[in-house]
Amino acid sequence: MDIIYIGSSQSAKLIHSIDKKKYTIICVNNAWRLFEENEEFDYWIHSGDFPRENFPSKTNFKNEISYLQYQPAIENLINQRLDLNQKFPYHYVGYTIFFQGLYWIFETLKPSNIYLLGFDHDYNKNKTKKWFENGQPNPQNNFLKEKNETIKEWSKRFFQDFDEDFFYGHGTPDPLRLGEDHLVEKFNLALEISKKLKINIYNASPVESEINKFPKIIL
Asked: Whole-prediction pTM value?
């Protein structure tokens, strides 16, 4: 099995120039929006705190994967198959939806190859600075927004002085909440574990990233 695993950076839009019939397509969180017109994809993975407001308005995917599926899969992979004896395996692998979904793929689908699109983690440093300085708005704190304000309205207002850096508009650099060094460490761990599992993982985006250092390949 060959998988294309899709996030929300601008490079995610490259999926439309690829022969998708050759791959199993997996979208994370807002990446479902790439297919909202008339296409169907295989798996939609979303975090437990993914806002209901941002759920797909129609089911354009074959399978929905939430924390009820990916957390036990991670635990089984880390503590049973790999015998790493981690008290909190889902924190050990990296507690963002990118890593949670990736390890669910490792354990459940056991593909030969995984190709990443839209996981560049190339956040605008000025946007990120503002986000940190204003309390890291995110789903856990309801984006620190007005009660009747939608997430789309909030993000448009909060980031109004910046260019949009997600393919669907504005978003938050939430994976950076634990620091860039932490992310780099978890990317390196994922590459190490993928080699143990004999799964090839590539970054299919042309964007140069300081965080996502998986081997490059263009599909």
From this structure: 0.93
Q: In what order do the strands lie in the sheet with 200-203?
A: 61-65, 41-45, 24-28, 2-6, 113-117, 200-203
Element (H, E) at 117: strand 113-117
What's the pLDDT tens digit per position in 113-131? 999 999 999 888 888 899 9
For the chain, give every domain's residue range: 2-122+175-203, 125-171
**pLDDT mean over 14-20:** 95
- For 212, the token pair is 């996502």
Cα–Cα nearest to 131, from 166, 98, 174: 174
Question: Which uninterrupted H or E stretch holds 72?
Answer: helix 67-75
Question: Looking at the domain 2-122+175-203, which fold is it?
Answer: Rossmann fold (3.40.50)
